[in-house]
Design a protein that fits this description.
Blueprint (H helix, E strand, L loop, with lengths): L3 E2 L6 H5 L10 E5 L3 E6 L11 E2 L9 E4 L15 E4 L11 E4 L4 E8 L1 H4 L9 E6 L10 E7 L4 E6 L6 E7 L5 E3 L1 E5 L2 E6 L1
Parallel strand pairs: 1-2, 8-15
Antiparallel strand pairs: 2-3, 3-5, 4-5, 6-7, 7-12, 8-11, 9-10, 9-12, 12-13, 14-15
C-alpha cells in the first residue's frame, strides 16, 4: 500500500486531536519541527508522546508512529541490539530476521554483498523491508511492509516498538518472486548475503 500524506500539522497536540475521520491506515503527516508520523490502524503500542502517539479519542487500536526525524531530515541511526533469528539455511552469525531487545527508531543501511547482487532482479522494488508483530513466518501473518529499495540497497527509516519488534528483509530473486535473505545485522547496517 502506498503511503498517503496530508498537509503539515503545527504540533503533536494537533496531530493527536485529529478525529477518526481524519486518519486512515498508512496515512502520514509531518509535524512541523518534530518529524513524520504514520498512522498504524492496528497498533496498540503504548503512547509516549514522541515515538508513539495515542489519539485524543483513545481508540483501542490505532496509533501515530514516528517515521522520520526533525523536518523530515531524520534523527540518528538504529543500533541492532537483540538477536538474529530465522537462521535455518544461513551461515554462522546470519539470519533472515532480527528481534530487537527494545524499541528503536532511526535509519538502517541496506548493503548488498556482490555475491547476491548478481542474482537479485533489477526492479525498483527489488528489496523489501518489513516489521512484524510476531516472529516472521511464511504465511506473512503479522507482517507490516515498511519500504522497498532497488537492488543497490540504500537507507531506510524504521521505528520498532513493543508491538513490532521484529524486522526482516526480502529480495526479488531472478525468478521474480520475493524471498527471505540471509543477512548480518550490525551497528545500523543490514548486509544481504545469500538466498
Amino acid at each position: 500500500m502506498a503511503i498517503q500524506t496530508g498537509y503539515a500539522i503545527a504540533s503533536i497536540a494537533a496531530l493527536k486531536a485529529l478525529t477518526s475521520s481524519q486518519r486512515a491506515d498508512s496515512y502520514a503527516r509531518l509535524v512541523k519541527s518534530v518529524g513524520w508520523y504514520m498512522f498504524d490502524a492496528s497498533s496498540t503500542a503504548t503512547g509516549d508522546d514522541d515515538l508513539v502517539l495515542l489519539p485524543d479519542d483513545n481508540p483501542s487500536t490505532g496509533r501515530w508512529i514516528k517515521i522520520g526525524g526533525s523536518g523530515g531530515g531524520g534523527g540518528g541511526n538504529i543500533n541492532f541490539t537483540g538477536s538474529i533469528i530465522c537462521t535455518s539455511s544461513c551461515g554462522a552469525s546470519q539470519g533472515k530476521a532480527f528481534h530487537f531487545d527494545s524499541p528503536q527508531s532511526g535509519f538502517i543501511q541496506i548493503v548488498v554483498d556482490p555475491a547476491i547482487a548478481s542474482i537479485i532482479y533489477t526492479v525498483p522494488d527489488a528489496i523489501q523491508i518489513s516489521l512484524w508483530t510476531q516472529e516472521p513466518n511464511t504465511a506473512m501473518t503479522g507482517r507490516q511492509f515498511v519500504a522497498e529499495l532497488p537492488k543497490a540497497g540504500g537507507s531506510v527509516f524504521i521505528s520498532t516498538d513493543d508491538y513490532r519488534p521484529w524486522i526482516s528483509v526480502q529480495a526479488r530473486n531472478l525468478s521474480s518472486s520475493h524471498d527471505g535473505v540471509c543477512c548480518t545485522f550490525g551497528g545500523n547496517t543490514v548486509t544481504l548475503l545469500t538466498f
